[in-house]
Design brief:
about 270 residues; five-stranded parallel β-sheet; five-stranded mixed β-sheet; 11 helices; about 40% helix
Length: about 270
């Protein structure tokens, strides 16, 4: 039997698919991140199933046992607390091991905080990059922003509510006018979608909010006057391509041309 990877709701328990419920009913074993969380979902929909914990702390030790059950023909379903296993959640190691062992892996799609936030942001992105959780330290976050330089699509990231104010302040320092959205408690009773520039959002979320947060940065829009500053921006891009850190390149060219350092830095993102 194949390993069935099942997406579960990111908040509202009614957002589970009929196909996932059917798979969970038929499974000989349901592997879940937290048996208590999964039991609430199953009870809500009248599903009786045998549950076993499978999370990042025990995934390695349980691989051989799960693979043995799959080889023996048992029907095994894998879920996480919310969303799709393997996307910033446990399960990736088991899926890789199953594929390597010649066991079929089938995915039953469903709710996604990433795509829900992207659409709810109303930022009109045709391309996007999902980057997981943002780096925790300010210096690492600035370096991470450098890595995203040149990406014209949207950027979707998870962030803890406790770190959100500091992360927004750092990002607002780098490109304050970039459009963004803070999506909080998606699909839940107190869902909130806050849209605006990064500077506006940094001011709005000066204190940690409650609940789970997904942050969306909109596609980069070149500021007015970029054409006139084209040669200077090109010089920054050439220095970066040669291995110079973006902030250093912007600083050097700003001193030589008199163009604002922040404008040169943001204009190449």
């Amino acid at each position: 039997m194949p390993l069935a990877v099942c997406a579960t709701p990111i908040g509202n328990l009614d957002d589970v698919t009929l196909r996932v419920l059917d798979e969970l009913r038929q499974a000989d074993l349901v592997l879940c991140e937290d048996t208590r969380r999964t039991r609430i979902l199953l009870d809500r929909h009248g599903v009786a199933a045998r549950l076993e914990s499978h999370h990042r702390h025990n995934e390695a030790s349980r691989l051989s046992g799960v693979l043995g059950r799959l080889r023996a023909g048992e029907r095994v379903a894998l879920v996480s607390d919310a969303g799709l296993p393997g996307v910033n959640d446990p399960g990736g190691r088991l899926m890789s091991a199953a594929v390597a062992a010649g066991i079929e892996v089938t995915v039953l799609p469903g709710s996604s905080a990433v795509e829900t936030a992207l659409v709810a942001s109303a930022l009109g992105a045709e391309r996007y990059a999902f980057v997981g959780y943002l780096p925790r330290r300010a210096g690492e976050l600035r370096s991470f922003a450098d890595e995203l330089a040149g990406w014209a699509g949207a950027v979707v990231a998870f962030e803890s509510p406790r770190r959100l104010p500091s992360s927004l302040r750092v990002l607002a320092e780098l490109y304050p006018e970039r459009r963004a959205a803070v999506c909080r408690e998606l699909t839940k009773r107190f869902e909130e979608i806050a849209r605006g520039s990064l500077s506006e959002l940094a001011e709005r979320f000066s204190q940690p909010p409650r609940g789970e947060v997904t942050l969306v940065l909109g596609p980069w829009e070149s500021p007015a006057g970029e054409a006139a500053d084209g040669p200077a921006r090109a010089a920054v891009a050439e220095l970066v391509a040669a291995g110079t850190p973006r902030r250093v390149a912007a600083d050097v060219v700003a001193r030589l041309t008199g163009i604002a350092r922040n404008a040169l830095y943001r204009g190449t993102l």
